[in-house]
């Protein structure tokens, strides 16, 4: 269990990072995200305190968001970035991204909404997600057995 004020949500989806210093754009896979920041593997040329525009778009949706983030930690696994001051719309976007709202009724809708946060790069992972959604998520989203 993550004891952070804003727990990380494991994920594996692509976002675009644009350096505020030189305008260089990089498409990278992020490994986790929270309301306050994210972790990305292999961000080329990253240095402490560098600022980036981070462009998010949710698969299958037109809506996208551009957030400001600053490098706060670099290690052998990648770079941690903290979001700059977020306005209410940006906070809501992150909340919907990290905690998808699903009523538990339509399994396909659940797979689509939660699939972005799960590492579903192979068939076994997709089946695991489907199994989770058909039991755990349905149970918790409906508040128990009806």
From TrEMBL:
Residues 4-95 form the PilZ domain. InterPro entries: PilZ_domain (IPR009875). One of its GO terms (molecular function) is cyclic-di-GMP binding. Pfam families: PilZ. It comes from the Bacteria. This is PilZ domain-containing protein. It comes from Candidatus Thiodiazotropha taylori.
